[in-house]
């Protein structure tokens, strides 16, 4: 029997909305652990049919037809649905908590320990020993069995002893950028929590390749051409060189059966596990800030992939489930178009931005826009106009409207920012190193720019809703990590740590047993005082319920912790976390 999860998620969302709309009203969380794993990987059969998403139609629909159709629609964007009692997103076929995972105990949070290290970020989704390795490979062992018909970067697929891999070349006017971007951005997407491929950079000799006879490719326009030796030579001619070796980006072929891209709105009617409208999924909404950080302006549905994961690898017709991946991140970090005017606007405006067009018409174009100030950097010349200059995460826009991005609420952005705050400078350096740039100045420029853009995101999204994370009970204390204090973000530069003054208030029950204890590296602990006996009351009795607000003196809103006091012998049980706006 299949149990629908949507009513459970809707009940949580409705209850949260009730709290937000009822002033001082306090709702009680049940005495149970939060949902940490969604059950959306239940096997079913048959597999959904493949979905084809034409590029031209999707762009026209999102920029023109959809806004027109929805002009008079009454559909206000509410809060995301798939959020658990701890204000987090459970693991699912869409998302897995990785670098941002809340510590199981506050010992890790208060002592500054992190589950993820820079080496973990650098590894990404790759498995050691399963990446394409040219060293020791014999000539002719990389069989080209498929051409790459679409996309900005030419390429082909090879079958090698380590598996199947898609190889892509750079464009001549931005050598090394696209291949590095795909590998680096895949690390950020994976560590953030999305499912992404194992992308890397490889330098190899021409002799490793052998071409399967009779290959052809059909592009998006329906034109079929042979992929022969001449076509291969044309691809290889675009590749950067390091000595006698060619540089290409390598993407390990995804497991399972490709089903085409996922959409950023609606549900897949052929997938019984897909019960939450995609535009109401927090990870897809909050993904807007990750895209903004890396300037992944090409964050359209065509750069995603649904994959059928059968329960038996030897039987593709066996029951399975659908897993959702992000693909093709090579546009990140300053991809350019042939028209310079468009290149300068990427990240600031849609390809066709009706709002800006109307403003320019009304003001006769006298308003100075960010793209009017766009300049290339000598140090980061291969990155086009990618910089921290005029980067406003709240105003960032992709190539054309994304339905999930457009519904991002403050809570979705704050959730994403709490994850982005986990990326230390060392993590960023480790990810950039994967790009294997020939010029050290390019790695230095990209690292510095990513650090600055990260800080801009944190400055905006960690100072309205509470940035306290890693919330847990430790002994007789409620402890957390203040990500704002830890990262010292501020609109005018680093904040003074002394500016953080922690104030606790009991909203229900006895609450705090003293003042907050401030720890290094963002840690803060609040003593709790017992109000209930060990026995004589049911564990979920209202007299055991405690609600505490903790403000850090900087953010507008508090952290609101919901606990059950199970008595001195058993201690407190944290059951819910909220971050109200005030």
Can you offer a commentary on this structure?
- The protein is of the alpha+beta class.
- It has 3 domains: 279 residues, no CATH class; 131 residues, Phosphatidylinositol 3-kinase Catalytic Subunit, Chain A, domain 4 (2-Layer Sandwich), CATH 3.30.1010; 111 residues.
- It is built from 14 helices and 20 strands.
- The strands form 5 sheets. Strands 1, 2, 3, 4, 5, 8 and 9 form a 7-stranded mixed beta sheet that branches. A 4-stranded antiparallel beta sheet has the order 13-14-17-16. A 4-stranded antiparallel beta sheet has the order 15-18-19-20, with no helix packed on it.
- Helix 11 crosses helix 13 and helix 12 runs antiparallel to helix 13.
- The radius of gyration is 25 Å and the shape is globular.
- The protein starts with 5 loop residues before the first helix and ends with a strand.
- About 4% of the residues have low confidence.
């Amino acid at each position: 029997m299949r149990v629908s999860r949507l009513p459970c998620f809707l009940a949580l969302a409705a209850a949260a909305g009730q709290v937000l709309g009822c002033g001082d009203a306090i709702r009680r969380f049940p005495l149970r652990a939060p949902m940490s794993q969604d059950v959306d990987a239940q096997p079913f059969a048959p597999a959904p049919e493949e979905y084809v998403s034409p590029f031209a139609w999707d762009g026209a629909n999102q920029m023109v037809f959809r806004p027109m159709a929805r002009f008079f629609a009454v559909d206000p964007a509410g809060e995301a649905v798939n959020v658990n009692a701890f204000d987090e997103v459970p693991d699912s076929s869409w998302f897995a908590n990785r670098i941002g995972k809340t510590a199981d105990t506050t010992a890790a949070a208060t002592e500054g320990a992190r589950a993820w290290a820079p080496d973990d970020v650098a590894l990404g989704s790759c498995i050691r020993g399963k990446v394409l390795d040219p060293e020791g490979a014999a000539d002719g062992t990389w069989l080209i069995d498929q051409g790459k018909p679409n996309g900005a970067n030419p390429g082909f697929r090879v079958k090698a002893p380590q598996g199947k891999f898609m190889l892509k070349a750079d464009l001549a006017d931005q050598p090394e950028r696209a291949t590095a971007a795909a590998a680096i951005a895949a690390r950020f997407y994976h560590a953030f929590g999305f499912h992404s491929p194992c992308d890397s950079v490889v330098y190899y000799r021409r002799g490793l390749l052998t071409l399967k006879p009779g290959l052809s490719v059909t592009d998006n326009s329906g034109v079929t051409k042979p992929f022969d030796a001449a076509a291969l030579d044309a691809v290889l001619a675009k590749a950067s060189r390091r000595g006698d070796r060619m540089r290409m980006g390598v993407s390990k072929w995804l497991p399972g059966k490709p089903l085409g891209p996922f959409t950023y709105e609606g549900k897949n009617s052929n997938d019984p596990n897909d019960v939450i409208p995609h535009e109401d999924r927090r990870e897809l909404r909050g993904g807007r800030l990750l895209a903004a950080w890396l300037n992944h302006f090409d964050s359209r549905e065509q750069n995603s992939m649904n994959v059928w994961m059968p329960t038996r690898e030897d039987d593709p017709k066996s029951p399975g489930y659908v897993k959702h991946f992000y693909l093709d991140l090579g546009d990140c970090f300053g991809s350019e178009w042939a028209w310079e005017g468009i290149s300068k606007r990427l990240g600031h405006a849609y390809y066709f931005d009706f709002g800006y067009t109307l403003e320019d018409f009304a003001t006769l174009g006298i308003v100075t826009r960010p793209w009017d100030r766009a300049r290339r950097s000598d140090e980061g010349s291969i990155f086009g106009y990618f910089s921290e200059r005029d980067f406003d995460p709240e105003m960032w826009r992709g190539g054309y409207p994304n339905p999930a991005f457009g519904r991002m609420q403050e809570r979705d952005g704050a959730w994403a920012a709490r994850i982005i705050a986990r990326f230390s400078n060392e993590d960023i350096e480790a990810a950039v190193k994967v790009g294997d740039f020939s010029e050290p100045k390019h790695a230095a420029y990209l690292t510095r720019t990513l650090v600055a853009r990260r800080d801009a995101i944190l400055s905006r999204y960690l100072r309205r809703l509470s940035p306290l994370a890693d919330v847990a009970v430790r002994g007789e204390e409620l402890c957390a990590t203040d990500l704002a204090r830890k990262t010292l973000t501020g609109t005018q530069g680093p904040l003074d740590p002394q500016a953080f003054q922690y104030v606790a208030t009991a909203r229900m029950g006895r609450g705090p047993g003293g003042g907050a204890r401030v720890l290094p590296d963002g840690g803060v602990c609040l003593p709790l005082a017992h109000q209930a006996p060990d026995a004589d009351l049911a564990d979920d009795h209202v007299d055991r319920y405690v609600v505490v607000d903790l403000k850090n003196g900087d953010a507008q809103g508090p952290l609101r912790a919901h606990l059950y006091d199970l008595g001195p012998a058993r201690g407190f049980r944290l059951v819910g976390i909220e971050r109200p706006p005030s």
